[in-house]
Write a structure and sequence with these properties.
This protein is mainly alpha-helical and about 260 residues long. The chain is built from nine helices and two strands; from the N terminus they run E-E-H-H-H-H-H-H-H-H-H. The relative contact order is 0.03. Pfam families: THEG (PF14912).
């Protein structure tokens, strides 16, 4: 195995340059390696530390007599509690001339309040008209109501009074209501036919109702002549009393 390469003729030149094989096989260093080595190191930021200058009240050593006198004069004026000054309440009731501190009679004051309470612009009160609701019957359940444009129609004009009964009977016999063409062509739906039938009360149940179990005292007497209705009821009361447990209070008192 060749460990190196000789460059030049050994006979002609005395110096021979030998290059090792490792340097020949070694790849060149990339250009970014130098940048990484330079920028991967942490930055050292040098900050100038300012010296703390103590005030005259933050001195390390003890205060002098001069400093104590100055502090006492400052505390007597600035540190002492101060009395709060409240603003005097102004007189709300002033005279008509606008001068403060005037007096006004109660009668004049009431008139002034009534005058000030009136609005500057008085609007007319809105008049509500209770119109008859339009005729919108619900023909089919689940669908919007059917709006009939011809209803409610105007009632016929009837005179306020008649001379006698014959004139009134003739008027009502000659009165005819106009019938629309849509009404002549209309057909009753199954829903209308169902609603037109008379309602049966009580309604027919969809399932049989079991008979009601009567109470012990409401049981009818048997078909015999030994008991009257009152005697049968007293007999039922007697049986109910005898069916209850016996009260043995004296036994529980002495033996329990």
């Amino acid at each position: 195995m060749v460990s190196g390469i000789n460059i030049g003729d050994a006979r002609a030149a005395k110096t021979v340059l030998t290059i090792p094989t490792d340097e020949i096989n070694q790849k060149p260093v990339p250009s970014w390696v130098e940048w990484v080595e330079r920028n991967s190191k942490p930055l050292v930021r040098k900050r100038h530390r300012e010296e703390r200058i103590l005030t005259k009240w933050q001195k390390k050593g003890p205060m002098k007599k001069k400093d104590w006198k100055k502090f006492y004069h400052w505390a007597t004026t600035k540190a002492a509690p101060q009395e709060r000054t409240f603003k005097e309440a102004e007189n709300l009731y002033q005279a008509g001339g606008g001068k403060a501190g005037g007096s006004m009679d109660w009668m004049d004051l009431d008139e002034k309040l009534v005058e000030l309470a009136k609005p500057r612009i008085v609007n007319k009160k809105h008049q509500f008209h209770d119109d008859d609701s339009p005729y919108n019957p619900v023909i089919t359940v689940g669908q919007p109501p059917h709006r009939d444009r011809g209803r409610p129609f105007q009632p016929p004009s009837v005179p306020c009074c008649f001379q006698h009964n014959e004139v009134e009977a003739e008027f009502w016999s000659q009165l005819r209501f106009p019938v629309r063409k849509e009404a002549l062509k209309g057909q009753a739906s199954p829903r209308i036919i169902d609603l037109a039938r008379p309602r049966t009360l009580p309604p027919t149940p969809h399932c049989p109702i079991p008979p009601k179990t009567p109470r012990p005292l409401d049981v009818p007497p048997p078909k015999r002549k030994k008991f009257t209705p009152q005697g049968w009821r007293l007999h039922q009361i007697r049986l109910t009393y005898l069916s209850q447990p016996m009260n043995r209070g004296h036994y529980e008192y002495f033996y329990l």
